[in-house]
Design brief:
Layout: E1 13-17, H1 22-33, E2 37-42, H2 48-53, H3 58-61, E3 64-67, H4 73-87, E4 92-95, H5 113-141, E5 144-149, H6 153-156, H7 162-182, E6 186-193, H8 206-214, H9 224-235, E7 244-248
Parallel strand pairs: 1-2, 1-4, 2-3, 4-5, 5-6, 6-7
Helix pairs in contact: 1-9, 4-5, 5-7
Length: 254
């Protein structure tokens, strides 16, 4: 099998969970600009059709938005069936859906059983379930890529809360395992941002962002475009990469 770099993604179909979110949509714009057809999976958002139409090549390439919840496997199976019937393939799967809630690491009582279960379901189980339902299409492609949007929290132990840390660490390790069992037809890579300019973590305002910037070696926090650029590279030039993590944090983990 050839893993030669490419500059175009014409004919490829990319499914992006959390596709209307900051990182997911930035990724869709980049992949669509290179010729890929993008399918945006989302839990809610009545502007899905308008935003897919606004992607590069929107009218010609028939980008689409499908409502599906990664913690609801039947909805994922329905989405995979729709991708199969509409496009007949899935070459790239980007898992950028999930959510979190700030809880101080020392506040053990605030990290309730219910919150732990919710965060593990959204940030680990749901990602695995998405890979599971799209695996047949990915294998059929023969030259597929799965990118799990993880976090440096998975290896630093510092994040919005300890359950989120555990979910991302688990995702990274299972991603490595999947890279072995799905090879050579499917590559699996984690992309691990640090703090990113988005509304992903509730309650974090400009003061928090400024503090993160001053304590990051490159002097700013990340942008969705920084993360999307790494995903684009994995789909195009970094094609001999699997079973590892790409850290996109401006040196934040140092």
């Amino acid at each position: 099998m050839s893993f030669e770099p490419t500059s175009r993604l014409d004919g490829k179909v990319a499914v992006i969970t959390g596709g209307l979110g900051a990182i997911g949509y930035a990724t869709a714009r980049r992949l669509a600009a290179l010729g890929a057809t993008c399918v945006l999976l989302h839990r809610r958002g009545d502007d899905g059709a308008a935003r897919t139409a606004a992607l590069p090549g929107g009218s010609a390439q028939r980008h689409s938005a499908i409502r599906a919840d990664i913690v609801d496997t039947p909805s994922l199976r329905k989405a995979a069936a729709e991708v199969q019937s509409t496009y007949g393939r899935c070459d790239i799967l980007v898992n950028s859906a999930g959510h979190t809630q700030p809880v101080a690491a020392a506040d053990l009582e605030a990290l309730t059983d219910e919150l732990i279960d919710d965060l593990m379901r959204a940030n680990f189980r749901g990602v695995f379930a998405t890979i599971r339902v799209f695996a047949p299409l990915l294998k059929q492609s023969g030259d597929a890529l799965v990118v799990n949007v993880s976090s440096i929290a998975g290896f630093t132990g510092v994040g919005s809360n300890l359950a989120y840390v555990a979910a991302k660490a688990g995702l990274d390790v299972v991603g490595d395992a999947l890279a072995k069992v799905l090879a050579p037809a499917v590559r699996v890579v984690s992309v691990s941002p640090g703090a990113v300019e988005s509304s992903f973590v509730p309650g974090r305002g400009e003061d928090f962002k400024a503090k993160m910037a001053t304590t990051t070696p490159l002097g700013r926090i990340g942008s969705p475009e920084d993360v999307a650029a790494a995903i684009e590279a994995l789909a195009t030039t970094m094609r001999f990469v699997t079973g590892t993590r790409i850290v996109v944090d401006g040196g934040r983990h140092l």
